[in-house]
TrEMBL record:
GO terms for cellular component: cytoplasm; nucleus. It comes from Smittium culicis. This is type I protein arginine methyltransferase. The lineage of its organism: Eukaryota, Fungi, Fungi incertae sedis, Zoopagomycota, Kickxellomycotina. One of its GO terms (molecular function) is protein-arginine omega-N asymmetric methyltransferase activity. GO terms for biological process: methylation. Residues 141-252, 298-352 form the Protein arginine N-methyltransferase domain. Keywords: Chromatin regulator, Cytoplasm, Methyltransferase, Nucleus, S-adenosyl-L-methionine, Transcription, Transcription regulation, Transferase. Pfam families: PrmA, PRMT_C. It catalyses: L-arginyl-[protein] + 2 S-adenosyl-L-methionine = N(omega),N(omega)-dimethyl-L-arginyl-[protein] + 2 S-adenosyl-L-homocysteine + 2 H(+). InterPro entries: Arg_MeTrfase (IPR025799), PRMT_dom (IPR055135), SAM-dependent_MTases_sf (IPR029063). Coiled coil: none annotated. It is found in: Cytoplasm; Nucleus.
Length: 434
């Protein structure tokens, strides 16, 4: 991960940016310190003391660097002398006395923000060790979801599943395993970058779910429901739901610059809200990763892992639909994605959506009156409400992720796919047809 320049440089710039208020002459805790790089950055930015919490053997590697700093007058690491205390323990199991700290830094992030469940340790550390009005770095994580078309990945996955449909594989009938194989392949999230042009919804309706690390509780992080309300901007096929995340590094009293606001009056399908802000998921240009989001000394540093940004080791993730959804321009997918922790230090994912004719929606009141919960099977037609076309329910297991590197976001190999027709997508606007 040290070789992930985007990730490492973002954290370095964030710590520097926070330094005057939250690092310089402050007591800092680094939760899950790993190589110790964040602890070293904190000392470089003026921290008076850093508690580096690390349970693995990496604590010993850190100690070698500190031993060199403390014993060798000519060491380039001399700036670390007497600044860092390593605590070889999980933060939940610490037995030594540790004072309250001014700032907690950590890189507890996994695929789609939450995989590996390190965020729970980050929140635990906040509740036990952070001073009132102390700083969390990062301060905000945002999970982003969008429907995409990806016929190549879907076909490749189906081909793998069909292998188990062979009745004569060396005179062995594999077909008794075919159903299980299909379920396993299509319940495994696919980690890897994807073409940003494959997003089928409008950018304004890409789902954004904020996880405020200053406020979220341990119970809340274990059961997450993300409302989805995707306005379809192309006629085509939805093969998967794509996911990624953004991070922000804010002081305690700063408002997030990338926070999505919702109009509660449009509450429908239980928890689904229609975004009212104009910002989309690419509201910061690609050259802002690891920098302040806007001009100004104290604007927060942001990290975006979406498909329009430089790739990170987290990449993005795609959740393939066992049955792709044919959509038309102007329709809408509404429902929710539920994420519940499991025993594999990850999450079980459940999508429950309805495809409806957006043209039938004339007002928020009409939506509220006529749109049933996503768990209720809708009537196909309604005389006084939206037209229901189909319902989709899917399950995935985030810990069973597989990897696919067929799309290289740094390559020119996909320049021929900049137009929608190259991805089998159509809309009057994109094809310049009145």
């Amino acid at each position: 991960m040290l070789q992930d320049f985007v990730r490492t440089n973002t954290y370095r710039n964030a710590i520097i940016n926070l330094s005057p208020e939250a690092i310089k002459n402050k007591i800092v805790m680094d939760v899950g310190a790993g190589s110790g790089i964040l602890s070293y950055f904190a000392v470089q930015s003026g921290a008076s003391k850093v508690y580096s919490i690390e349970a693995s053997s990496m604590a010993g590697k850190m100690q070698k660097i500190l031993d060199d700093a403390n014993s060798n007058p000519n060491s380039k690491n001399r700036f670390l002398k007497d600044k860092i205390q390593i605590v070889k323990s999980k933060v939940e199991d610490i037995v030594v006395d540790i004072e309250k700290v001014d700032t907690i830094v950590s890189e507890p992030i996994g695929v789609l923000l939450v995989h590996e469940r390190m965020l729970e340790s980050y929140i635990y550390a906040r509740d036990k060790y952070l001073k009132p009005n102390g700083t969390m770095a990062p301060s905000l994580g945002t999970i982003c979801l969008a429907p995409i078309t990806d016929s190549s990945l879907w076909a490749e996955t189906m081909q793998k599943a069909r292998f188990w449909q062979q009745p004569e594989y060396y005179s062995i009938d594999l077909t008794p395993l075919s159903t299980d194989a299909f379920k396993e392949y299509f319940s495994s999230p696919v980690v890897g970058c994807f073409n940003p042009n494959s997003i089928v919804s409008s950018t304004e309706t890409i789902s954004r779910f904020d996880v405020d690390f200053y406020k979220i509780t341990l119970d809340e992080i274990k059961n997450i429901t993300i409302p989805v309300c995707w306005d379809i901007k192309f006629t085509g096929i939805v093969h998967a739901i794509a996911g990624w995340f953004d991070l922000e590094f804010n002081l305690h009293d700063q408002l997030p610059v990338n926070q999505t606001k919702y109009d509660n009056s449009t509450d429908f399908m239980g928890n689904a809200y229609t975004p009212t802000n104009d910002a989309n998921y690419s509201s910061f240009s690609s050259d802002t990763n690891g920098k302040s989001a806007n001009s100004g000394a104290r604007n927060p540093v942001t990290l975006c892992t979406g498909p329009n940004y430089p790739p990170t080791h987290w990449q993005q993730v795609r959740f393939l639909l066992p049955e792709p959804i044919a959509v038309n321009y102007g329709q809408r997918l509404v429902g929710k994605m539920t994420m519940v922790v499991n025993a594999s230090r990850s999450y079980d994912m459940h999508l429950d959506v309805n495809l409806i004719e957006n043209s039938f929606i004339n007002s928020n009141a009409q939506i509220q009156q006529n749109l049933p919960p996503a768990t209720q099977t809708p009537q196909l037609y309604s005389n006084n409400g939206p037209k229901y076309i189909r319902q989709a329910k899917c399950n995935w297991y985030l810990h069973e992720q597989i990897y696919n590197y067929s799309y290289n976001s740094n390559s020119n190999d996909y320049n021929n796919q900049i137009n929608p027709e190259n991805l089998n997508l159509y809309s009057a606007e994109s094809n310049n047809i009145n």
